[in-house]
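[#protein-structures] MJ: dropping Amphi-Trp domain-containing protein here for a structure pass
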Amino acid sequence: MPEVPTDDAEPTIETITDGYFEEEYYVSAEDAGEFLIELGEQLKEGEELTITGDDWELPFAFGEPVELEIEFEGDGEPELEIEIELTGKTETESPEIE
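AK: finished. C-alpha cells for Amphi-Trp domain-containing protein:
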C-alpha cells in the first residue's frame, strides 16, 4: 500500500551501510514473488544490489560463492524456508603467491 505524505517535504531516505538492520514483512505471495524476481535480476546483473524500503535503502556489494539453503519441515504444519546468504565483497585483493 503506498504511503501518503503528511506534508510536502521529500521523505528522508536513510542509507544503511553499517551496524545491524532487520525488517520483517508479511506480504502476499505475488508481492514476495515480485521482490524475489527483482532481487534475482540484481544478482544476475553484477556484484552489487540495493534493497529499498519506505524510508531506507541498503546497498550491498557481494562476493562469490552465494549460499542458498532450502529447508522443509513436513511434520505438523508444513513449512518451507528458502534462505540466501551473501558474503560482503572486500576491496582487498588476495596477495599473489609465487
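MJ: nice. The beta strands are 14-15, 48-52, 56-61, 67-73, 79-85.
AK: one more thing. The radius of gyration is 18 Å.
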